[in-house]
Amino acid sequence: MLIKGAQMNKSTKQTLKLNKITKTFITMGTLALAFSGYAQEQQTAADIAADKSAENVELIQVTGIRSQLTQAVATKRDSVQFVDAISADDMGKLPDANVAESLQRVSGVQLERGIGEGSAISIRGLSQNVILVNGRQVTTAGGRGDKGPDTLESSSYSMLSLIPSSLVSSLEVSKLPSASEIEGALGGIVNIKTRRPLDNDGQKFVASATGSYNDLSEDNGSELSAYYSNTFLDNTLGIQVAASSSSATFQEEGLNTFSGYSYDASVTPDPADETLVFNDIRYWEINDKRDKVGLNAMVQWQASDSLELYLDTFYSKVDSDRERYWTGFWTCCGYENTEISNNGVLTSGTVNRPVQANTEFAPAYMEFASTALGFKWYANDWEVTGEFAYTDSTSNSQQDFMRFQTAVSAEVDFDLLAGDDAPDVTFGDADLTSPDGLNLAIVYDNTSYNETTDAAAKVDVTRFFDGDFLTSVNFGGRANTLDTSHDYVARAITPNFALTDLPQIYTMYSNNNFFSGDGPAVNDQYLIVDKSKWKGCTTLSDYYDAAGTAECATTHDLSPSYKIKEGIVALYTQANFASELGGHNISGNFGVRYVQRDLTSEGHSEDVATGVATPFTTKVSHSEFLPSAVVKMDLTDDLVLRFGAARTLTFPDTSDLSSGIFVRGDFTANGGNPELDPFIINQLDFAAEWYFGESSILSAGVFYKDVESFIVNTIQPRDLPNYSQQVFVEQPINGESGTIQGLEVLYQQAFTSLPSFLKDTGIMATYSFIDSETPFEDGRGNSLPIPGLSENNINMVAYYEVESFGVRIAYNWRDDYLGYLGAGDNGVFYKSYQDLAVTANYKINDNVSLNFQAVNLLDTRQKQYAAYEEAIQRNVEFGTTYKMSVSVNF
Fold first, then answer.
1. Where does the record place the TonB-dependent receptor-like beta-barrel domain (predicted)?
2. For residues 497 and 544, what is the distance between their CA atoms, to the nearest angstrom?
């Protein structure tokens, strides 16, 4: 990744941007005043009071889709901060497949997909966000920025995929943190809330059973969930237990790659011509069976009028049994019959290469347990809350990878433009359906283990006032230690045993409708490893001995292994106010947060030539002040303006902080960088919100983020222990600054004034435009945006609901976005993506209801290209999933 040079004077650029933001603020204010006039014409004071009274009743009594939207609007309206919310109508049943997919309904939130479902999110283009469960931070096994134990580019094991949606009561996204909120969110803070037992008096029991079917995997799945709560001692003691268990198989079929594209000067006779070549064309099928378990238990005790105690625990685990099969070849050398696009991409040709049939077994698990013990004490004008929380997260992944490869080369023809982003490939006379002529060419047997523990204690004190301006002052602190360890054990051999000389470890893969018939014929049938007969490298022990070859050895690879310990102390003070200005109610807060971090990173400097690993420890300290302020102005009872500014911080991803360095024989190396400074952003926000009904809102907001430093990769000389000269180490460093700015629009309305059945309909729509300027540019000098950021994102939800029946249609679209930088510093881009989901529910009686879901109805293929659209390198499909459930409520 290259650091971009200045193209104009930096102060000039900042002036232009600030002028643009200022003009936008003025325009938004003008619109807000226009809304104000219109709103005052539409409602009298009596109407407003009546509406507020009705709202207070219906927030408790109404269930269903409209209730979810009404509660979400109330949360946004009442909050001083910039907050969006998603509410569930009962027991924590979200209207989407999982937590991540529900969050994409929030304007400015964009979804990253794993296999078959949403997995992770970015908020306003940034993935550095904080995930809370009932207000406490939870971290996965790989530490900050971890996406889980995945061998693929996209992740299926992020924190949001670990939490069963059936246990969730509501989701809140805060986009501009106050001083009292936890640090670490550049995009936003996501708070995942479960119910509390004292929310309702008496006994409550809810259970549901769900069956599912995926039309690509042709597999049935199931889910069971239950919730029980009860209160005792005159409703001062409450207990609750919620549990969920699910099993489903996800599938992916299509084109993908490991090595992607690179430049090759041998394609044309002129060695000065470098052609972009698709090195590693793979058509694969992934079957991923996931078993997920979730548990939430809470005890809540109102010990006295002034003291409340609680114990809250949350546990989740995902077990994945993944199989991946593919054919492939390495594009290289002696090109014939070539066609090259105007952009210099090799789009078709013929090469003589060995061809492969590949098998990967990649079982993995990931789990976390988080427990909190807390209290709230209040007397007179004081309130004190405290909590101690402990989270332990672990993950383990194994990779058994075996390659069958032809002993002689075959004439391979390929054409990238033969179909709709589905290249045609033929393997000449090669036969991958017979063991004759095939070798067992490669065997990998690798294991990766991660564990992170997070112990945190916090105390918050509030002093209330009766003055005309200052309503309260908060102050407090939080201390936590975050310990992460990563260990890696590898076995790798290239035996090149003839398959006919080995026991029958193979079986036949067959899929006559692979990739809906768009894949090449070579992928319909080929030999793979029989899972029932493969026991890792030891499967071949007798054959190593007979051949006089050393058995595949275990290598404890110390260079990528590390231990990282962070101690973070945060102190804050915040003043909260409420008053009048020009006859309008205003409220808000201002404050400052101080953060101190001490880091110890333990790794190894490993010499590839000698295999000697030298312990290498780095200690770093960093501190920062983070001021913030927000003002909320009620122009009318229905029209709200918000202004906010904050300085936010997050520390680099844990994996980037490793001290481990792998040194090659030519005194070059690669490794982490524990001396990285944190990401810091200075942020401005403005929003205008018109609440023109109980569940209706029209809002628009603009934001501007000044990013003080991005993290980029570079090569720099370093002095390392036991080396007589400097070593040139490729590692992440703090690069130049950049900016992010955007517009977010939300429109939500219940059409209760329309005639006939239309009065029972409604809509929710969001749109966001997010632009960025970064120090990154590709190999051709073109500026690049932030990876994972789509400029345009649209989400729409339409619903129809009567007392016993409701249906909801949800559509989401995001445009192209940069995935990462590939060979030659070329940007690798994802094409635009859209999805459509439908939910319908039928209430049989007060206690029993049915629910139907259809997810990914458009079955959109996820496509990816390298620099130019003809350089396709990913095109996969996941299939549509259908779910039917029955719920009981007592």
1. 398-857
2. 10
Over the stretch 617-628, which tens digit does the pLDDT of each residue have? Answer: 899 999 999 999
Task: Inform me whether the pLDDT recorded for 819 exceeds 70.
Answer: yes
Tokens of 760: 């029972």
φ, ψ (nearest 5 deg) of residue 435:
-70, -20
Amino acid at 876: V
Task: Quickly state the pLDDT bin for 135 (edges 50, 70, 90).
Answer: very high
Chain centroid, CA 801 distance in Å? 32
Query: Helices 45-61 and 65-78 meet at what angle, rounded to 10?
Result: 120
Residue 549 pLDDT exceeds 80: no
DSSP character for 514?
G
Q: Could you give the CA distance from residue 344 to residue 151 in angstroms, rounded to a whole number?
A: 31
Domains of the chain: 2-889 (2.40.170.20)
Work out the pLDDT band at 296, boundaries 50, 70, 90: very high
CB-count burial class (<10 Å; 0-12, 13-18, 19+) for 724: exposed
Residue 845: count of CB within 10 angstroms of its CB: 8
Report CA-CA distances (Å) from 537 to 440, 490, 494, 542: 12, 11, 11, 11
pLDDT attached to residue 24 = 38
Burial class (CB in 10 A: 0-12, 13-18, 19+), 609: exposed
Q: CB–CB of 774/762 below 8 Å?
A: no
Cα 182 from Cα 273, distance rounded (Å): 53
**For residue 722, is pLDDT > 90?**
no
Indicate the SS3 state at residue 230.
Answer: strand
For position 92, what pLDDT does the model report? 45
> Residue 873 has what pLDDT?
94
The rounded distance, in Å, linking the Cα atoms of 81 and 589 is: 9
Predicted TM-score (pTM) of the model is 0.86
Tokens of 309: 């105690």
Q: Which residue has the higher pLDDT, 566 or 31?
A: 566
Angle (CA) 375-381-387 rounded to 5° is: 15
Let me know: does 760 contact 707? Beta carbons within 8 Å: no
pLDDT in tens, 198-223: 988 999 999 999 999 999 999 999 99
* Residues present in the chain in total: 890
Q: Can you list the pairs that 857-864 forms with residues at least 24 positions away whose Cβ atoms lie under 8 Å?
A: 858/834, 860/833, 860/834, 860/835, 861/254, 861/421, 862/113, 862/830, 862/831, 862/833, 863/421, 863/830, 863/831, 864/819, 864/828, 864/829, 864/830, 864/831
Residue 537: pLDDT over 50: yes
Q: Encoding tokens for residue 643?
A: 């202004």
Alpha helices by DSSP H, 673-797: none
Q: How far is CA 346 from the centre of its chain?
A: 34
- Per mean pLDDT, which range of 11-25, 160-174, 495-509 is the poorest? 11-25
Burial class (CB in 10 A: 0-12, 13-18, 19+), 464: middle
- What are the two backbone dihedrals, phi and then psi, of residue 597, each rounded to the nearest 5 degrees? -125, 135
Report d(CA 424, CA 509) in Å as an integer: 20
Q: CA 356 → CA 46, 346, 407, 493, 786, distances in Å?
A: 76, 21, 10, 16, 36
Structure tokens at 128: 């550095």
Tokens 């333990």 belong to which residue?
602
CA distance 750 to 763: 7
